[in-house]
Amino acid sequence: MDKEKDILILGIESSCDDTSASVIKNGFLLSNIIAGQKIHEAYGGVVPELASRAHQQNIVPVVDQAIKQAGVKTEDITAIAFTRGPGLLGSLLVGTSFAKGFSLATGVPIIEVNHLQAHVLAHFIQEYDIPYDPPKFPFLCLLVSGGNSQIILVKDYLEMEVIGQTIDDAAGEAFDKCAKVMGLPYPGGPFVDKLAKEGNPDAFQFSKPRIPNFDYSFSGLKTGFLYFLRDRLKENENFIEERKADLCASLQKTIIDILLDKLIKAAKETGIKEITVAGGVSANSGLRHTLLQTAAKHHWKMHIPKFAFTTDNAAMIAITGHFKYLKDEFTGMDAVPFARMDIRV
Ligand code: KG4
Could you tell me if the CB of 189 is within 6 A of ligand 1? Predict the structure, then answer.
């Protein structure tokens, strides 16, 4: 393969409920199109079968728009990178099949991407006219999304080790499920974030888990929150409505405290001061603020990605594909998606 030419990677992301396509040229972002799926709002969570159907409807127009907006031609694409997992199997199948079809039609190679690695590598997406200050290896990444809460030791672009993770629910699930019992729409994380700005974070105390090492647990908080509301509602049926902002602020503070306790411990024990955050929950304004405060206190160099690169997007898939392309890591046409995948794969 001629590596002197421009490297144009078309990235495809379809692991959950966002259909996304992106074009990256020599590591620089040209386009990043994301089509969300409103259909799940009515169900209070992602319905897998509906997600894969929506991906099928969205994938061709989304890819078409990404290529057009990038101002490139289909024949200019060097390789197509796609999310192989982890995620919802039916959703992943749409992206995987599209990548294979595109490869058969154009002759370009396919590159499988691990969704979790991609969240971490979102820090390396370059944009024209925006200063580039990526994290230096080795660094720690707090990966917090709807499906994951992990502390990852990142040794190189494609060399990562999970040193701590949730033993049950993810931080995003804690946000979403507690939001649901307060009657907030799905996904509740951004609504909790918004309401928390007007509330008192010390209004209510919720218990924190005692889990060894760098691991997390959020299921106890979720249950505790539910029981707390049930008891208060017996005394006052308008309790949630009257105290919603305080409930959101206190819940958010507890989740942030839990996340930060282990991150501080991991930074201390590894001696690493280069810290990053990734995943949908890293859009949370309280978490961002607390991370910056903690970084100043502990002399960390903190890297927080821009909002568009925190939630699921294909730009992170394309940049990971770029680094895999440089290492000649291509995928065979017999590749099938995986619902579960370790970050090392
Ligand atoms: O990474 P992501 O887009 O999807 C996967 O889980 O793969 O993360 C989605 C999660 C949801 O749980 C959502 O509620 C949460 O990220 N989230 C937030 C905020 N924005 C998104 N949680 C708290 N505050 C936010 N501002």
Answer: yes
